[in-house]
Write a structure and sequence with these properties.
The chain is of the alpha/beta class. It is built from nine helices and 13 strands. The strands form four sheets. Strands 3, 4, 5, 6, 11, 12 and 13 form a seven-stranded mixed beta sheet that branches. A two-stranded antiparallel sheet has the order 1-2. Helix 1 packs across helix 4. The chain is elongated, with a radius of gyration of 25 Å.
Length: 301
């Protein structure tokens, strides 16, 4: 059990300042301490953790691998602590840096359009937004909220469901004019079936043929790492793809893409979740504000 006389947040703040300012002397000046006092405090922290956090030389300090991990998490802890104190003391509006990581289709078709309204509601929030379909470790990358691609995996993260979308096979009219329109699942064998290049991608397209489930593998001459890039290749007439309905809703309405084999569509859906950290029931007000906003605004129908 931790000793009560250890000011762990204070130690963490000193360590973070040493890293960010590049040495003990600079940190000492910023914190109004002596360089020896800063050095002793960091040494005491390393002794308590039983690990070396910094490699010291006469001119500089360098983080060890363990020090990198402790620094990244320390910055996050100190930011959350500041947020908690601010909220408890003043019940202030959401403020501070809000790091968001979203899959590319969700970002392109929903999130980017909603950013101006969210920031107008919460002018003291600064948004740090990354769009990617890669797997994200939100703790390691210090992400407040993520909207990942694909099924939600079991983890220690909390999640709020934003909605769900059906899947649809689509092709561009120009491509179908060249290669013909598939009328049955077997017809897909002669088509360029585009897919994803990441390991967690669904293995093939599920279809129902005479009431029997089947799965058609992708075999296309191009694979991509995000859903929006795949949509653009289909629009360019390269081949067919199976995409979330919300991605291609406007394209279908405008005639840029045509839905295919709908009578064989098994009707499976992909759920969309926002995932976040929330240990001990504590949730920064900026995170809660974004989650509530997304639940209010995002509609997949």
């Amino acid at each position: 059990m931790a000793r009560l006389d250890i000011n762990r947040s204070g130690e963490m703040e000193v360590f973070v300042r040493v890293v960010e300012l590049g040495g003990f002397s600079a940190a000492a000046r910023a914190l109004r301490m002596t360089p020896s006092g800063v050095s002793k405090l960091v040494g005491r922290l390393e002794s308590r953790l039983e690990v070396r956090l910094l490699n010291r030389s006469t001119r500089q300090v360098q983080l060890t691998a363990e020090g990198c991990v402790f620094y990244e998490r320390g910055v996050r802890v100190l930011a959350d602590l500041e947020e908690a104190e601010r909220g408890a003391a003043t019940n202030a509006a959401p403020r501070g840096r809000l790091s968001v990581n979203a899959n590319v289709p969700f970002g392109a078709h929903f999130l980017l359009a909603l950013v101006p309204e969210f920031l107008a509601r919460h002018p003291d929030v600064t948004l740090d937004l990354v769009l990617t379909d890669e797997v994200v470790d939100i703790l390691e990358q210090r992400t407040d909220v993520a909207v990942p691609a694909g099924p939600l995996k079991s983890s220690g993260l909390l999640a709020r469901k934003l909605g769900q979308t059906r899947m649809v096979i689509v092709g561009a009219p120009a491509y179908l004019a060249r290669r013909g329109t598939p009328l049955r699942p077997a017809d897909l064998e002669r088509h360029n079936r585009l897919g994803f290049n990441y390991a967690r991608a669904t293995q093939g397209w599920p279809l129902l043929d005479q009431g029997v489930g089947t799965r058609v593998a992708t075999n296309g001459n191009a694979q991509v790492g995000d859903g929006e890039a795949l949509r653009r290749l289909v629009l360019a007439g390269l081949g067919l793809a199976r995409l979330a309905a919300f991605q291609v809703r406007d394209d279908i309405a405008a005639g840029r893409l045509l839905p295919l084999l709908e009578e064989f569509n098994p009707g499976d859906v992909e759920e969309i979740h926002a995932v976040f950290l929330g240990q001990g029931g504590y949730l920064p007000s900026r995170v809660r504000a974004l989650l509530d906003f997304l639940v209010e605004k995002v509609r997949f129908d």
